[in-house]
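[retry 2/3] peptide-methionine (R)-S-oxide reductase: previous attempt timed out, resubmitting with same input.
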Amino acid sequence: MTQSSDQQTTDVAAGVGKVVRSEAEWRAMLSPQEYHVLREAGTERPFTGEYTDTTTEGVYRCRACDAELFRSTTKFDSHCGWPSFFSPLAEDRVRYIDDTSLGMTRTEVRCATCDSHLGHVFSGEGYATPTDLRYCINSVALSLQPVEGA
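[retry 2/3] peptide-methionine (R)-S-oxide reductase: success.
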């Protein structure tokens, strides 16, 4: 059975299944910058992203598949140039990959639903957060759904 993209998004938002698309489909639905970051593991320039300094209450979703990833209550100002969170909405919303590019070892964070690159997670940096983790996420990888009435 083949699902339409709209049906896939609806199912994902409800917590059902994975989103799988061809590279041609991803290119057609994402802007060039979104495609570069989400599908080619690129990085947007620091301090240029839409959500770097945003304090709006709401849920941050994967821009590629609309899966809920982070809540604004876990966002904090790390002064790093990208939106930072101390934890995902739930551990099953993201997956982790060892990233040895750029001559160092980091932990890449990907959307568990559509396998899009979101950013990286760092630990032991001394932030006064409940987890001592910093999920450094590209704004272009996210869309913010504000809380109603906020």
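[retry 2/3] peptide-methionine (R)-S-oxide reductase: The beta strands are 58-62, 68-71, 75-76, 84-85, 94-99, 106-111, 117-123, 133-137, 142-146.
[retry 2/3] clearing retry counter.
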